[in-house]
Please model this.
Amino acid sequence: MTLTKTYHFTLIKEKSNQLMFKLGDSHHYASLFILEEDLFRVMVSKGEEFSPAKTWLVAPDMEDIPFEGRSRFDLTGFTLPAYHVEKSEDVVTVYTKLLKAVIKLDGFKITWLMRRSEQDSWRQVAMDRNTQAYNFDGALGTSTYHYLQRTYEESYYGLGEKAGETNRYGRRFRMLNLDPMGYDAEWTDPLYKHIPFYITRNEKEQMSYGLFYDSTSESIFDMGNEMDNYHGLYRYYEQKAGDLDYYFIAGPEVSSVVKRYTWLTGKTIFPPKWSLGYSGSTMTYTDAPNAQEQLEQFLADCEKNDILCDSFQLSSGYTSIDDKRYVFNWNHDKFPDIKGFVQSFADKGVRLCANIKPCLLQDHPMFEELKKENMFIMNAAGDGPEMVQFWDDIGAYLDFTNPKTVKWWKAQVEDKLLKYGIQSTWNDNNEFEIWSETAQVNGFGNPLAFNYIRSLQPILMMKASYEAQKENNPNERPYLISRSGAPGMQRYVQTWTGDNYTSWKTLKYNNKMAVGLSLSGIYNIGHDVGGFAGPAPESELLVRWVQNGIFYPRFTIHSWNEDKTVNVPWMYEETTEAIANLIKFRYTLQPYLYTALYRAHAYYEPMIKSTFYDFEEDQNTFKENDDFLLGEFMLVPSVVEKGATVREVYLPHHKDGWFDFHTGDYYEGGQSVTLPAALEEKPPLLVRGGAIIPINCNEPSFNETSDEQRAILLFPSKGNQSSHYELYEDDGITAHYEEQCKKININMETTKERINVSFHLKGDYEVPYEELIFTIPAGETREVYVNNEWTKIEDGRFSVRVR
Model:
């Protein structure tokens, strides 16, 4: 079935890997860009000029872009490969070695084909809906649309931070930054982040591709929830403001799509090593009249209970006047000695990360000053700020598309935080909840409707904080956190899944939410361990949440419990020692986590991964599960059920099998096994055969350092196999980490008779240990050779000098 009205396009220009088409004698244009062998781009606009003209989300292989964004027609960073064009009266076909777009000129409807290599045959994987795929003349309403056909054999993954199952098929989602405190992790939508990207897996063809819509406007993704008999099966993207600009990313593997998309939106920031430590936090302390005293008691309790802690996230109560919060305003009654308070934490080796918000209440001491300078998001008339509800009063959001606002913000971060010794910023409540259809922004001198760049504001806010920190201390890597954001936020911050609700269901579905973020290019993530809102967690739930949280890049116990209790490691006397040991276990794994963090930055590799990310050939990994992969070798089967004493886990098919990390027991892949999971035991953890895992041997106590010693845990395959691991080492803070680092490349080759280990070192950084201690599982009887020399094994270990 087709529409009777025709929308016939003509190819009018071909230049610099761009093919431009025009609709009849109208002002509608469409373009196809050939950017990479596996990456095409489609733009559909109401004129030759695109609206909005700039992008802030696209930064191919870049660490940063200017505040003003980059022109949508700037192709810097793309290789612009050779391509082929075939033309006829009705169809234009464009293809590279891996990707083909067949464009039907009536309606500009595209059929997409992919292949794995030049020797492979083309396979159709996607097609625009046959009955008007785009909204050229308003026939579909006022929004911008893109409709595609769908099939029952497809699965959809990604869309960032979304509630529910990993597979998004059959649901509808809004992309709108919102503050849904206490959300239901299975059903609530929207949440905090705007990530207009998803992966389609074509089960029939065993191929995957990605679609990324470069827009910061509110949008909707219907993944097969809607049906209409006149159009067949379809899915669609709806964008509330602006022209259509989307990227088609060919896989064919899910992992290839994820890496290419993340490359497209920019590098993951590489924060200091201490950002991987336990970070304490609660709103209750800073809300208290004696906040400084309570926070210093937190340090004393860490020391008393031997809780390792690297940082504390300072909630916004430090800025209060009466019961309201005023950003950059210190409450001197709560904090009578700010410098002394900050120094007391520094003396214990604990960094402070201060909460800051982008909205000033109407009675904020600096409100009138900023209002006079038009530094807020403005109303339609342009004669004053757009006033909105913010917490318990009315206020106005800062406009980070105004250079004066950016300058002011950076100065405040410097003067109110950094000069006291606070090293990090927690960019919070930055969802910019403005509901007026007519609010305006400065647009860096080119005024623009706020609706066009709604989710851009949190990106620019965190960039302003990032620059302030970087300028203040150019020799150290900055660490920032942000709750809200959009594609590209990974260039500046670590993030978390917001103000979750304390429940077993949240623990379960936060894992799936994290997988969705990782599949969407946001790698440095975590959750509020123990739950932020609602009741206090029972002791069993708290322990299980800590067992889960220690495997995430961000490990923070944070809360605002209804009964005013505080989620802390010593919350329950009977579980304090167990939680202290779990935190120490996390520090044991820190070299593995830190290397994974570096690889996320350098090679676009996610730290947290779905089981199908690395094992796509095993169809069972696409079944919904509560497991995730961590780094290159680990499989984490979290316990998410109350009262559980065992944990059944499916081991993806892997020819070299799997090992229990704690016992060394070996299991064949492609089967389900049941592992012991009593509450007082170490959490279930598996590693694949061939794994090479670096750990810390020496455990420091709170505020006490010990000489570092590194062990390399080997889990050799039972048969012929070769594996490799590159351990990354540096001082943990330097901004010049590429020049001042050591990369230790370790190779392990196995046969049925012997294990061959070789390694070489690269880089000038002098590691703080003299030898590597290698271990092999109990019961391993094969001879071991190191750099082709036989090595004596004692108690399952041997050592090699590295300096």
In short: The CA atoms of residues 29 and 48 lie 7 Å apart. The chain has a mean pLDDT of 96. Residues 456-472 form the longest helix (17 residues).
